[in-house]
Amino acid sequence: MGVFGMPEWMGQGRWRGGLRRSLVLVLALVLTSCAIPQLRAEDRLFLPVTVELLDVYNLPPQDFAGTTVGGLSALAYDRPRDRLYALSDDRGRYGPARFYTLSIALGRGEAGQPRFESVKIDAVTPLLDTEGNPYPEGSIDPEGLALSPRDTLFISSEGDVRQSAPPFIGEFDRETGRAIAALTLPERFLPDDPDQPTRGVQNNLSLEALTVTGSSSGAGMIEPFRLFAATESALVQDYNDDPSQPLNSRFLHYLIGDDQTTLIAEHRYPLELEPTGAVVNGLTDLLAIDLSGHFLALERAFGLRGVQVKLFQLATGGATDTSTIASLRGDGSGSAPIRKQLVLDFADTPLAVDNLEGMTLGPRLSDGSQSLLLVSDNNFEGDRATQLILLRLQM
Questions:
Q1: What is the dihedral of CA 82, 132, 285, 115, to 10 degrees?
Q2: Which of 48, 146, 165, 279 is nearest to 156 (CA)?
Q3: What percentage of the chain has pLDDT greater than the value 90?
Q4: Which of the four, 5, 82, 150, 171, has the lowest number of CB atoms within 10 Å?
Q5: Are the beta carbons of 89 and 142 closer than 8 angstroms?
């Protein structure tokens, strides 16, 4: 017999039951006494991204191979060759449409912090059409640049609405600068009237941002990869003149394969509210940071309060496909937008930033961490340097 005359198996069962109840009580007390961080659902959408400002290099105004170096609006780092490609947004006034090849050397400062040691222009490559001819002056406004997994360059042009030059996204040979092919843009991006358009990109607020993601599968085979592009500001049909409402850019997602290019989706990208006194406000570049729909986005405004630049992380998961929505004016017709999280407001740093328009993942730093490079467009003002900014990216 067990305890107090009960069968032994009954006493053991009651003892085990009491033990279980005691353990549950202790666990509950422990949990309630601990401060458990509360995560918002929105926070789970984003990666733990931080950036650290390390250095700035001012590239002085100069000429190179018969061109004026300036208007640098996009960057792409070629890791195997350890070279940096910088796209000029010159429409043909100071040389042909072109990109530069730069070599950069990174070292350490007195405190051991990574810094620029030197930046050198090695070459300039004119952009040519599919026939191998230079682009006529004013017919192209290069703004976005990305190095693809098949070792070509994708370049976006804002075009010029007033000159009836349409925007485009083209693929170019990296070595010769010759155009290979162009992506098909939806008709809603193409202005219908140069004088009074009712649809399409706004002049000089067009396809500014461009990035790709994907990698080679080896053995000479290239797997399909993704290309993303976005307008600097709202399309004509999306524009809202209510300053209390954010403007919406359109964000394009392409799948690119050997034989076919497909527009997968389009999303709404809500810009920050235009600062008081701003003359220009918009998205200047995108950078894919993983294969799961996370990006960095660079927004820039300038006007009476000078230049203001913010770096955001984007999460595209859950964003509505807006390709069938005629207008994104106001609330975007109820569409779920791309979500944004502020990573860095340059107003909170000691650096007086200039007109930042391009960014790329750069070389690894000496401690193995990832660098992030930004570049400013000096608008070909002769007394204005081009800023190259070095940051450490952690995520």
A1: 20
A2: 146
A3: 78
A4: 5
A5: yes
